[in-house]
Amino acid sequence: xxxxxxxxxxxxxxxxxxxxxxxxxxxxxxxxxxxxxxxxxxxxxxxxxxxxxxxxxxxxxxxxxxxxxxxxxxxxxxxxxxxxxxxxxxxxxxxxxxxxxxxxxxxxxxxxxxxxx
Length: 117
Description:
117 residues; alpha+beta; three-stranded mixed beta sheet; two-stranded antiparallel ribbon; 3 helices; 5 strands; 31% helix; 29% strand; elongated
């Protein structure tokens, strides 16, 4: 599930944010070892907090009857994923431009629709 979310966010940033293939988009923990391997400008989105959204939790079960049998299904769980977004370039001005482009794209997006990304 998280891999699909990461791919959708990457597609959103590339398609709507204008972040080209010359900029790497990563989802790794930004530690020293990782940073030492960077060779080109990088936008990193690290998922640091994942938890169920209990405010949106629904407990209503759906019952689908089919003749003499039936099926009970639970509604899907809603999960909040919080990311730390960082940019990595040689010049601080480039880092700020890249970070601003990513954040403005994410801010304009109220929800992710994988089909639209």
